[in-house]
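Students often ask why we bother predicting the structure of a whole assembly rather than each chain alone. The short answer is interfaces. A chain on its own may look different once its partners are present, and contacts between molecules only exist in the joint model. In this exercise we take two input lines together and write out one structure for the complete complex. Read the inputs first and try to guess which parts will touch.
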Amino acid sequence: MTSLDEEQLLAFVDKMPAFRGSVQRLLVLAADLDADSREIVQVIETDPLMTVKILKVINSPFYGLAQKISSVQRAVVHLGINTIKNLALSVAAIGVLPSQNQAGFDTHAFLLHSLTSAALCKLLAERLNVSSMQSSDYFVAGLLHDFGKIVFAEFIPATYKQVLHAARAQEINLFQAELDLLGTDHSRAGKLLAQHWGLADELIEAIDHHHSEHRHTQLGDCLFAANQISKKLQFGFAGNPVVDELPPGTARVFGMNLEGLIADLGDLSPIKNEALAFID
Amino acid sequence: MKFKFWGVRGSIPTPGPNTVEYGGNTTCIEVKNASNDLLILDAGTGIFALAQTLGQAPVVAHILITHTHWDHIQGLPFFLPLLSAQNQIHLYGGMDPVTQQGIERALTVQLQYSYFPIIESQLKAEVHYHTLRPGEALQIGSTKITPTVLNHPVLNLGYRLDDSDGGSLFFTGDYEAPCNLYSADDPDYVSNQQFIEARLREVHAAMRGVDALIVDSSYTDAEYVKKAGWGHGTYGAALQLARQVQAKKLFLTHHEPTRSDRELEAIFRDVLAKAGPTDFEIALAREGVEHVLR
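Now the answer. The structure tokens for the assembled complex follow.
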């Protein structure tokens, strides 16, 4: 990263709070001895900050994993629901992300884009016959792919406001505006953070390459398509006014272009409604 | 290698006439290996009586903590060798995922002015803290020790001990096999089942073929219905585990604090009857009894 202080960025993100809705729901569930563990898992799975905290801890060398874990449910199997719940509570204790930030970045719309990208990424994984054990990793990739944006919006709000404005005014890809004004972009910031936290290589690579000429992995293809579908159908908004066509390699994997894929997937409104149910 | 139970009770000490046979102290197991090192698994209240047997000679003790719930650390401040400068105490445990602190915290938290008359800086013994990583073996004298994460409401390490004399032992600490949170018609059921099976394969591999398998067996199947998720196992699950990992002898421990000796024996008779013939021996862990492996 050229123009941002990495050390400062990492320290900042470690203290970043989670989204208001998830913090509130988690606190209610945690106060109930008979709370349904599935609901607790769901709250964590639908909050990027809580998910990141769990993955960061579970993948540290202190917990003896044979391979990295990119799924909250799998982390629960490994460390138990009570420990996972308390990890999430330690995030909830930081506070809540303000709904209005100085960057003018709409966190509600951002979360909707992240959640629908996650659900779509998992849906596309199933379409490509990815094993059910892996498909929750695809959900996480969708949830976290734009993580760098919320970090920028909180970390450098005034500059990021200009970035968002430039992308909108010039109708250019947000990452392009980021590169122009920040000298880096949200996928690189996301990659840097994911690397620092020791997340799985596939997840790091998917976050890193979700805009640039990505290497064709199944996860990369699903994430690219999921992101474009979410934008095209205007399921939330994460600051990028441009919808890209599927690169030829990705279109080949799905056997059709973006428009064809959207048509073929049928009615996707339940994905948006389900995500909205979590957020509101 | 030989080992002796100094505490077999779960949750809280239960002194009194109804527990004299199996004992009322909370978890503590003493292990003597071929190189005559003193290893102690967990520091429940049983560790106090153990300490009385150590005599006046300098002590080097290796205390391995499975997890930091009270009944497994409560005896630590009363482990008297901590108070003498001639002694060396090594304390081993995992890195708590939530506090991101190692086993040193178990002593620090207990040795506070409000809760105990002695503060940490007054301990005269040389105390060394070791944060263990699951799957990474540690050598103490003739014994190789391998920790494994086992499901409980707090980070819990099961310990496998392999001695150069050929004897082997696995102690679960507190353990409940992970169960699927989702019902069979839930879309997350299948993947969760696969996560659990993959995890169980690793756990079973860590216990495979031990001479002594010491397992948290808190509940009967009937009791478990109301206690699922509390982090403890059942007699039935322990038996199944011993069968799966081909253990030579199974010890059932972490006896419920409400159980009298008579009740415990009645349950044990029932467990044996239900088990039918097995390839391994089954015993109730009993305070004060020593077992020799090889």
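Check your guess against this: Residues 107-279 of chain A form a domain with the Hypothetical protein af1432 fold (CATH 1.10.3210.10).
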